[in-house]
Amino acid sequence: EVQLVESGGGLVRPGGSLRLSCAASGFTFSSSAMSWVRQAPGKGLEWVSTIYSHSSNTYYAYSMKSRFTISPDSAKNTLYLQMNSLGPEDTAVYYCVAAPDDGVPAYWGEGTQVTVSA
Protein backbone atom coordinates (compact mmCIF):
# COMPACT_ATOMS: atom_id res chain seq x y z
CA GLU A 1 0.00 0.00 0.00
CA VAL A 2 1.34 3.38 -0.99
CA GLN A 3 1.50 5.95 1.76
CA LEU A 4 2.67 9.55 1.85
CA VAL A 5 2.41 11.09 5.29
CA GLU A 6 3.19 14.77 5.69
CA SER A 7 4.13 16.39 8.97
CA GLY A 8 5.75 19.52 10.32
CA GLY A 9 3.05 22.04 9.60
CA GLY A 10 1.73 24.46 12.17
CA LEU A 11 1.35 28.09 13.12
CA VAL A 12 4.34 30.34 12.53
CA ARG A 13 4.82 34.08 12.64
CA PRO A 14 5.69 36.09 9.54
CA GLY A 15 9.39 35.82 8.84
CA GLY A 16 9.62 32.45 10.53
CA SER A 17 10.64 29.05 9.24
CA LEU A 18 9.22 25.55 9.10
CA ARG A 19 10.45 22.23 7.79
CA LEU A 20 7.88 19.90 6.34
CA SER A 21 8.46 16.16 6.09
CA CYS A 22 6.85 13.53 3.92
CA ALA A 23 7.36 9.91 4.91
CA ALA A 24 6.92 7.64 1.91
CA SER A 25 6.28 3.91 1.67
CA GLY A 26 4.87 1.33 -0.73
CA PHE A 27 6.76 2.46 -3.83
CA THR A 28 10.34 3.07 -4.92
CA PHE A 29 11.08 6.46 -3.42
CA SER A 30 14.59 6.70 -4.83
CA SER A 31 13.39 6.45 -8.45
CA SER A 32 10.42 8.77 -8.14
CA ALA A 33 10.06 12.45 -8.85
CA MET A 34 8.83 14.06 -5.67
CA SER A 35 6.94 17.31 -5.42
CA TRP A 36 5.26 19.66 -3.02
CA VAL A 37 1.95 21.24 -4.00
CA ARG A 38 -0.09 23.62 -1.87
CA GLN A 39 -3.64 24.88 -1.68
CA ALA A 40 -4.45 28.16 -0.01
CA PRO A 41 -7.90 28.74 1.49
CA GLY A 42 -10.45 29.24 -1.25
CA LYS A 43 -7.90 28.80 -4.03
CA GLY A 44 -6.78 26.09 -6.40
CA LEU A 45 -3.73 23.88 -6.25
CA GLU A 46 -0.37 25.60 -6.66
CA TRP A 47 2.80 23.77 -7.55
CA VAL A 48 5.66 24.55 -5.15
CA SER A 49 8.70 22.44 -6.02
CA THR A 50 9.89 19.21 -7.66
CA ILE A 51 13.01 17.11 -7.45
CA TYR A 52 13.72 14.46 -10.08
CA SER A 53 15.32 11.23 -9.02
CA HIS A 54 17.49 10.52 -12.05
CA SER A 55 19.08 13.94 -12.30
CA SER A 56 18.54 15.31 -8.79
CA ASN A 57 17.55 18.54 -10.49
CA THR A 58 15.30 20.74 -8.43
CA TYR A 59 12.68 23.21 -9.59
CA TYR A 60 10.72 25.86 -7.72
CA ALA A 61 7.85 28.19 -8.31
CA TYR A 62 9.27 31.64 -8.88
CA SER A 63 7.99 33.20 -5.65
CA MET A 64 9.49 30.41 -3.55
CA LYS A 65 12.81 29.83 -5.25
CA SER A 66 14.91 31.88 -2.86
CA ARG A 67 13.03 30.86 0.28
CA PHE A 68 12.23 27.15 -0.02
CA THR A 69 14.50 24.13 -0.35
CA ILE A 70 13.34 20.65 -1.35
CA SER A 71 15.49 17.71 -0.38
CA PRO A 72 15.11 13.93 -0.23
CA ASP A 73 16.61 11.45 2.18
CA SER A 74 16.54 8.16 0.31
CA ALA A 75 17.85 6.25 3.30
CA LYS A 76 14.77 7.29 5.23
CA ASN A 77 12.35 7.44 2.27
CA THR A 78 11.52 10.94 3.37
CA LEU A 79 11.09 14.19 1.48
CA TYR A 80 11.63 17.55 3.11
CA LEU A 81 10.68 21.12 2.38
CA GLN A 82 12.58 23.77 4.28
CA MET A 83 10.62 27.00 4.22
CA ASN A 84 12.16 30.29 5.31
CA SER A 85 10.97 33.90 5.40
CA LEU A 86 7.38 32.79 5.53
CA GLY A 87 4.60 35.27 4.89
CA PRO A 88 0.82 35.17 5.19
CA GLU A 89 0.65 34.31 1.49
CA ASP A 90 2.28 30.98 2.29
CA THR A 91 -0.69 29.91 4.40
CA ALA A 92 -1.98 26.73 2.80
CA VAL A 93 -2.31 22.99 3.04
CA TYR A 94 0.91 21.47 1.71
CA TYR A 95 0.75 18.15 -0.10
CA CYS A 96 3.48 15.69 -0.96
CA VAL A 97 3.17 14.13 -4.43
CA ALA A 98 5.04 11.18 -5.93
CA ALA A 99 5.59 10.38 -9.60
CA PRO A 100 7.12 6.91 -10.01
CA ASP A 101 9.95 6.65 -12.53
CA ASP A 102 9.90 10.43 -12.89
CA GLY A 103 6.64 10.08 -14.77
CA VAL A 104 3.08 11.18 -14.11
CA PRO A 105 2.22 12.18 -10.53
CA ALA A 106 0.36 9.25 -9.11
CA TYR A 107 0.29 9.44 -5.34
CA TRP A 108 -0.76 12.19 -2.96
CA GLY A 109 -0.54 12.59 0.77
CA GLU A 110 -3.28 13.93 3.02
CA GLY A 111 -1.54 17.26 3.49
CA THR A 112 -0.27 19.32 6.39
CA GLN A 113 -1.58 22.75 7.32
CA VAL A 114 0.78 25.71 7.42
CA THR A 115 -0.58 28.95 8.88
CA VAL A 116 1.49 32.12 8.87
CA SER A 117 0.03 34.74 11.15
CA ALA A 118 1.06 37.22 13.78
Tags for this model:
118 residues; mainly beta; 7-stranded mixed sheet; 4-stranded antiparallel sheet
Q: What do you see in this structure?
A:
The protein has 118 residues and is mainly beta. The chain is 0% helix and 53% strand. The chain has strands at 3-7, 10-12, 18-25, 32-39, 45-51, 58-60, 68-73, 78-83, 92-100, 107-108, 112-116. The strands form 2 sheets. Strands 2, 4, 5, 6, 9, 10 and 11 form a 7-stranded mixed sheet that branches. A 4-stranded antiparallel sheet has the order 1-3-8-7, with no helix packed on it. The chain is globular. The mean pLDDT is 95.
- Gyration radius, in Å: 13 Å
Alpha plus pi helix count = 0
Q: Could you give the count of β-strands? A: 11
Coarse morphology = globular
The biggest sheet amounts to: 7 strands, mixed
- The secondary-structure class comes to mainly beta
Strand content: over 45%
* Distance between the amino and carboxyl termini: 40 Å
- Uncertain spans: none
Helix-strand topology string: EEEEEEEEEEE
Mean pLDDT: 95
Give the helix level as a range of percent. Answer: under 10%
